[in-house]
Amino acid sequence: MHYRIRGLDPEPFAPLFAMDDATLAERGARRVQVNDQHAFPDRIELRDGEVGEWMLLLNYCHLDLPSAYRSSHAVYVRQGATSAAEHHDCVPEVMQRRMLSLRAFDGKGWMRDAALVDGREADAEIRRLLQNPKVDFIHAHYAAPGCFAARIDRGADRG
Fold first, then answer.
1. Residue-by-residue DSSP string for 42-100
2. What 8-state DSSP symbol labels residue 109?
3. What is d(CA 102, CA 142) in angstroms, rounded to the nearest whole number?
4. What is the pLDDT of residues 7-30, one digit of tens each?
5. How far does CA 5 lie from the centroid of its chain?
6. What is the helix (H) or strand (E) element at residue 124, kind and residue range?
7. What are phi and psi of 132, to 5 degrees?
8. How far apart, in whole angstroms, are the C-alpha atoms of residue 55 and residue 62?
9. Distance CA 3, CA 157 (A)
């Protein structure tokens, strides 16, 4: 079972970096400088922020479908991130170093299965969840804080 993990599109976030702190606060967001290695996981490039980099912490609606599971949560996005990461048949390091909640959904946004897994063991669990024909995609969340990490879709056989 092949899969693809994608970061968020950076385009909607780019204008936010030009806003002052008061305007960001009005939107429920804040600018933060990375001060600890492995503490600020960027959702665009799917990597941890490096000490000294700037990020925004903001609310992001990651499941915008009309179901009981419609959901949003806090995410970090890195200033200067210009292209979304894409990983095929492998879990990025930023996710491997954390406990993950994997939530498998059908195309209407209804949860069909879920699992809690050490990120280093996520590959096998992703493949297991995608074996279910009722599952259209998976959302990975960082288990302790509960925030959205990335979307996982079935991938084409890359031969």
1. ETTTTEEPPTT-EEEEEEEEEE-SSSTT-EEEEEEEETT--S--EEESS--HHHHTSEE
2. S
3. 9
4. 999 999 999 999 999 999 999 999
5. 9
6. helix 122-130
7. -75, 120
8. 18
9. 9
Q: H or E element: which one contains 102?
A: strand 99-105
DSSP 3-state assignment of 5?
strand
Query: Which tokens is 123 given?
Result: 């590959």
Residue 1's pLDDT is what? 85
pLDDT digits (tens, 9 = 90+) for 39-91: 999 999 999 999 999 999 999 999 999 999 999 999 999 999 999 999 999 99
From residue 71, give the alpha-carbon distance in Å to each of 35, 44, 82, 136, 147. Answer: 29, 18, 25, 17, 10
For residue 18, the SS3 value is helix
Split at pLDDT 50, 70, 90, the class of 158 is: very low
- Token digits for 144? 């302790």
Q: pLDDT at position 124, please?
A: 98
Following DSSP, what letter does each residue of 21-45 receive, concatenated? HHHHHHTT-EEEE--STTS-EETTT
